[in-house]
Amino acid sequence: MIQNHIPLTTQIPVRDRFGIDSDLLVPSFIEKSDLVPSIDETYQFDPEVTLAILTGFAFNRRTLIQGMHGTGKSSHIEQVAARLNWPCLRINLDGHLSRLDLIGKDTISLKDGLQVTEFKSGILPTSLQRPIALIFDEYDAGKPDVMFVIQQLLEKDGKYTSLEQNKVISPHPLFRLFSTCNTVGLGNISGLYSGTQILNQSQLDRWNIIATLNYLSPNHEAKIILSKAPHLDNDNGRQLIDNMVAMASLTRQGFANGDISTLMSPRTVITWVENLIFFKHIGTAFKYSFLNRCEEMEKPILTEYFLRCFDQEIDHFND
């Protein structure tokens, strides 16, 4: 059911809620609905990206977050929204999402024993009329016909013309639009992101705010990993996590230098920590978490990285 009334909101200082040195006030819903993401109390915010997202919420600016995989772009938006009690709908623009999924289509239903054809609105017109933050995930993987539908929402007034319903839909005052992407519309240059498209630059220009979420500093990343694995919060555990983060940093440096074609994201490190619970051995968990998906010719390089970080061979099981 479309919610047409404006729910109760209050203005909150981002300095108090997010610890950012800014006088910005941002709307926050007083009541929490089912579509509000759950708060992750251990989440570590990037101040610059957080401020960009908050500005998007406060002033209805179309905001795009760019960065490599595993940096937490989508979850960053969701965790900001969670603390604002702002409902979210996250849509992945993969190859299975069609233009009809966005705009709607005719459906056949039974009324009084007769078949009737009715138009059922899609994701865009339905979301547009609600107080919701619509997040387009993997924005640079969207198909061209899908992207041109979205382009209407990027105009200044954000109105959507529904030819199927023969009407113009104005956005709800508390509708917000965000997206995430890996390549800023440049396509699959690095070879890491098969399926991404070169974005229409006129459409890219319509995004009001573009922020980049990079990999965090080793210390910051280690804190995030530790927050996900509190059982390692001891001297040996913290040293282990520091070594794992160092290993991930070496893969990123090796990728940047062209030595290897795959790198470890923070998400991969978290998976490695989780798998360590099951496999008990740091080398075995590393194989299942990352090494087995790497090119065979690159494995000696990764083995050398592992030796440098852990002072042991990957196949040494006396961990």
From TrEMBL:
A molecular function GO annotation: ATP hydrolysis activity
Cobaltochelatase subunit CobS N-terminal domain sequence ranges: 9-34
Highest taxon of the lineage: Bacteria
Domain spans labelled ATPase dynein-related AAA: 64-185
SUPFAM superfamilies, sorted: P-loop containing nucleoside triphosphate hydrolases
Pfam families documented for this protein: AAA_5, CobS_N
Name of this chain's protein: Aerobic cobaltochelatase subunit CobS
UniProt organism field: Vibrio casei
